[in-house]
Model the fold of this input.
Amino acid sequence: MTKKQLKESCEFLLNKGFEAPELGIVLGTGLEKLVGHISDPITAHYHHIPFFPLATVEFHFGKLVYGTLESKKVVVMQGRFHCYEGYAFSDVTYPIRVMHALGIKKLFISNAAGAVNLDFKKGDLMLIEDHINLQGGSPLAFKNVADFGPRFVDMSEPYDSQMMEKVVEIAFKQHIKLRRGVYAAVIGPQLETKAEYRMLKILGADAVGMSTVPEVIVANQLKLPVLAISVLTDECDPDNLKPIHISDILKVSSETEPKMITLFLEMIKSL
Ligand code: HPA
Done:
């Protein structure tokens, strides 16, 4: 990754009309419908954007959508890149750098995650207050990282406290149950064993998933305030573990999506 590549990616998007977005949004698995609320959308498929990671077949449909949500200019990633697809950490986070270079001032992230905290139930939403990186690598571990920001990034408050307060208030007003907790990121794509779920609980995780943490690390390097919310799609009870199928995960996330959309739209209104 070079600054020149980043500039070319941005120029391509600017030529398509991606002018001065205020907010970037990353939509997680089964959480794509927010895009339908965007007015005057302009779309750029990932495989057309210069220097974007080369999309796998599955992510052929991944796209960046620019437009207006609640009278704010936004750029939305419909589909994200995961390390389990074989991408490097720097690939997975390249779109965050592009959205930042386009001018976003804040970043919202959603994902699907398993509930490690057994007080939490599938179909609940969880505000990510902190995280544990168990992916065995960093999106800041590359030679020329200093061209893009500091190398030794502070992570004492990776999620923006003002936006967290605001979303808690909104959830209360909208009668949406919003849990709060620690998200642990693993590589996947296999789900966890019983012993691994036990370990995650001991480590202090409330939820586990396969994304988000690389993007949040890069957002912190870029000093972009982040709000991140998980949809809890399955309950990870090591003493009573039932087989988890990806189709169940997708079903729960799409059923829970309307609550996520309400929170995001109300948050955008409040910005
Ligand atoms: N583990 C890891 N990732 C996940 C899970 C899980 O149980 N559920 C949804 N994403």
In short: The two ends are 32 Å apart (CA to CA). The first helix runs from residue 3 to 16.
